[in-house]
Write a structure and sequence with these properties.
By secondary structure, the protein is of the alpha/beta class. It has one domain. Helices cover 42% and strands 15% of the residues. It contains 5 helices and 4 strands; from the N terminus they run ββαβαααβα. It has a 4-stranded parallel sheet, with helices on one face. β2, α1 and β3 form a beta-alpha-beta unit. α3 crosses α5. It is globular. The mean pLDDT is 94.
Amino acid sequence: MSLRLKRAYLPPAPADGQRVLVDRLWPRNLRKDDAAIDLWLKEVAPGAGLRRWFGHDQGRWNEFRRRYQLELAERSDVLRDLAGTARGGELTLIYAARDELHNHALILGEAVARVLNE
């Protein structure tokens, strides 16, 4: 059982296991053949309004985290599905954001990990 996060622009690796894209938009300049995405879960990404509001502004990070957690609370079925995939083997959440410390995939990964620990 393993849960990882990885930027979409890094090359796929066998250790990634199931690769799930968790962005609402397809990553720019990334060919679908090169991405090796097994599943694209647009619905688990932040809503369009929240995504635009955040705009990767680190000053809005804490509020973005709070709002996105509220959105995720309404998607518990998807979180359970992702946790089930992680229980069955390797799961890598794929995201496009440049900032590896302030992006929605971190929050999503934490939510999935909480479900795994229940």
